[in-house]
Amino acid sequence: MNLKLGILLLLLLSLYCTTADSACRTSDGCDLALASYYVVSGKVLSEIALEFKSNILQSANSIVEYNRENVPNQDTLPSFIRINIPFPCECIDGEFLGHTFQYNVAGGDTYTTIANNTYANLTTISSLRLSNPEYTENNIPDTGVLNVTVNCSCGVSSISEEYGLFITYPLRPEDSLDSIARATNISADLLQRYNPDYTVANFSQGSGLVFIPGKGCLDGGKIRNDGK
Ligand SMILES: *[C@@H]1O[C@H](CO)[C@@H](O)[C@H](O)[C@H]1NC(C)=O
Ligand SMILES: *[C@@H]1O[C@H](CO)[C@@H](O)[C@H](O)[C@H]1NC(C)=O
Ligand SMILES: *[C@@H]1O[C@H](CO)[C@@H](O)[C@H](O)[C@H]1NC(C)=O
Ligand SMILES: *[C@@H]1O[C@H](CO)[C@@H](O)[C@H](O)[C@H]1NC(C)=O
Ligand SMILES: *[C@@H]1O[C@H](CO)[C@@H](O)[C@H](O)[C@H]1NC(C)=O
Ligand SMILES: *[C@@H]1O[C@H](CO)[C@@H](O)[C@H](O)[C@H]1NC(C)=O
């Protein structure tokens, strides 16, 4: 092959790879992803179920099913724990994987309280701005519906085919690469490879989203990674 053709091919290939990285097709989605939601005191399950309502989450009971170890029933929700909330992972605008929830605003809501408190940092203020062109940040009506987008992952086959269920996990100050690796039984190296955006994969920065792989076997709400 002549050199010019070789270079052209290489160029095309790298172009293809970068677009493939940032874009998605409808078929790239997956039926299920999990959102790791940090519960603060005063939250009740029925409220969370409304905020994360989707075709796979109709009631508080669906949340109980995924969190049997931590959440014994619909009426008992311990505070200061993480729960896994199931949601569908879809290709949004051909650009990235996520799901857009419909949130019924309440008086006093701001983009900050919605991102920071209501959705426990699973979304961000800039994402809220982008998904709600009809409203301006300081002019959210007292009643109305906001689009709240939560990102997700369905895996990366070039890394491993073994993992099929991913948790969207907002980092908190108490988290570190080692603490997450220990809690999930996923090696630190694999965790970093699934989160290339964090070029140095800083799991200790106390904020930001990472994706944690699982094998899709749920046992009492805990993701088992022993392949059984
Ligand atoms: C986020 O909420 C916490 C309480 O849940 C509060 O202490 C903190 O100041 C808030 N951060 C921002 C940026 O609003
Ligand atoms: C969301 O992030 C803010 C700022 O980093 C933090 O103060 C707040 O406690 C976080 N909220 C939850 C529910 O973890
Ligand atoms: C979701 O992913 C898109 C594309 O990578 C990014 O622009 C956006 O900020 C992310 N949203 C959140 C809430 O992290
Ligand atoms: C929510 O998203 C839909 C679909 O993209 C859009 O038509 C609607 O205007 C958005 N809502 C707001 C409040 O901007
Ligand atoms: C990761 O974040 C922590 C907290 O912000 C910081 O102290 C540390 O230097 C960062 N590490 C890297 C490798 O960027
Ligand atoms: C942890 O992962 C290793 C290999 O990935 C597996 O052999 C082991 O059974 C797992 N342990 C638990 C407690 O899941």
UniProtKB/TrEMBL annotation:
<feature type="signal peptide">
    <location>
        <begin position="1"/>
        <end position="20"/>
    </location>
</feature>
<keyword id="KW-0812">Transmembrane</keyword>
<dbReference type="GO" id="GO:0019199">
    <property type="term" value="F:transmembrane receptor protein kinase activity"/>
</dbReference>
<dbReference type="GO" id="GO:0045087">
    <property type="term" value="P:innate immune response"/>
</dbReference>
<dbReference type="Pfam" id="PF23577">
    <property type="entry name" value="LysM_RLK"/>
</dbReference>
<dbReference type="InterPro" id="IPR036779">
    <property type="entry name" value="LysM_dom_sf"/>
</dbReference>
<dbReference type="InterPro" id="IPR056562">
    <property type="entry name" value="LysM2_CERK1_LYK3_4_5"/>
</dbReference>
<keyword id="KW-1133">Transmembrane helix</keyword>
<protein>
    <recommendedName>
        <fullName>LysM domain-containing protein</fullName>
    </recommendedName>
</protein>
<keyword id="KW-0732">Signal</keyword>
<dbReference type="InterPro" id="IPR057097">
    <property type="entry name" value="LysM_RLK3/10"/>
</dbReference>
<dbReference type="InterPro" id="IPR044812">
    <property type="entry name" value="CERK1/LYK3-like"/>
</dbReference>
<feature type="domain" description="LysM">
    <location>
        <begin position="167"/>
        <end position="211"/>
    </location>
</feature>
<keyword id="KW-0472">Membrane</keyword>
<keyword id="KW-1003">Cell membrane</keyword>
<dbReference type="InterPro" id="IPR018392">
    <property type="entry name" value="LysM"/>
</dbReference>
<dbReference type="Pfam" id="PF23472">
    <property type="entry name" value="LysM2_CERK1_LYK3_4_5"/>
</dbReference>
<keyword id="KW-1015">Disulfide bond</keyword>
<dbReference type="GO" id="GO:0005886">
    <property type="term" value="C:plasma membrane"/>
</dbReference>
